[in-house]
Amino acid sequence: MAATTTAARRSPRRLMLLAGVVVMLCLVGGAIAVYFGVTNPSVETGPPTTAAKGFLNDLQTQRYHDAYTFMCSTVQSSIPEDDFVTRMHGAKTITRYAVDGVDTKKVDNIPSATVRVTVTRDGGGVTHDTVLLREAGNSWQVCGGSIIPNPPST
Q1: d(CA 145, CA 1)
Q2: In sequence order, what are the residues at sequence separation of 6 or more whose Cβ sits closer than 8 angstroms to the Cβ of residue 96?
Q3: Which residues pair with 18 in a beta bridge?
Q4: Confidence check: pLDDT of 2 > 60
Q5: Helix, coil or strand: residue 72
Q6: How many CB atoms lie within 10 A of CB 52?
């Protein structure tokens, strides 16, 4: 009888210890989730995707001056508009494109995005390109990527 009494006393202790460990793990996991949620809040993918599509539509329809307006001031200061238009006229025309994916993050606390696209050009050539965007005020601007001929080095 003594053996069962000792075992009965240990069982609630083990149960309480196990419950305490589970509660601690939940609290630590919750703290980690809150930390990453506050320090690196998510950036929506819709607005940068819309901006990238607007830029690509202007390239596809050969409205290069309109496409230039999507570019951020850093790119505009390194590629004058006339040079951009000339470079785009010299490149093969985009006949079709598809957005393959969007990755967003904050860089220096500024929402940024990389839009991956598959581009088909005149003659059937297919390339996998990127459009790099940054949020500026209430809009998203193209600040680089492989889609821009001779993009400035950063």
Answers
A1: 78
A2: 60, 119, 120
A3: none
A4: no
A5: coil
A6: 27
Domain with 52 in it: what CATH number?
3.10.450.50
**Cα gap 4→128, rounded to integer Å:** 71
At 2, which amino acid appears?
A
Q: Are 115 and 133 in contact (CB under 8 A)?
A: yes
What's the domain count of the chain?
2
> For residue 116, what are the contacts with CB-CB under 8 A and spacing of at least 6?
99, 100, 101, 102, 103, 128, 129, 130
Asked whether residue 70 is assigned to any structural domain, the reply reads yes
Tell me if 54 sits within 8 A of 70, measured CB to CB. yes
The two tokens of residue 109 are: 């606390």
| pTM (two decimals) | 0.70
Query: Does a structural domain hold residue 100?
Result: yes
pLDDT range class, residue 10, cuts 50, 70, 90: low
- Contact at 8 Å (CB) between 122 and 95? yes
In this structure, is residue 94 part of a structural domain?
yes
Q: Which residue has the tokens 């083990």?
A: 14
The confidence score (pLDDT) of residue 34 equals: 56
Instruction: Count other C-beta atoms under 10 Å from residue 34's C-beta.
Output: 10
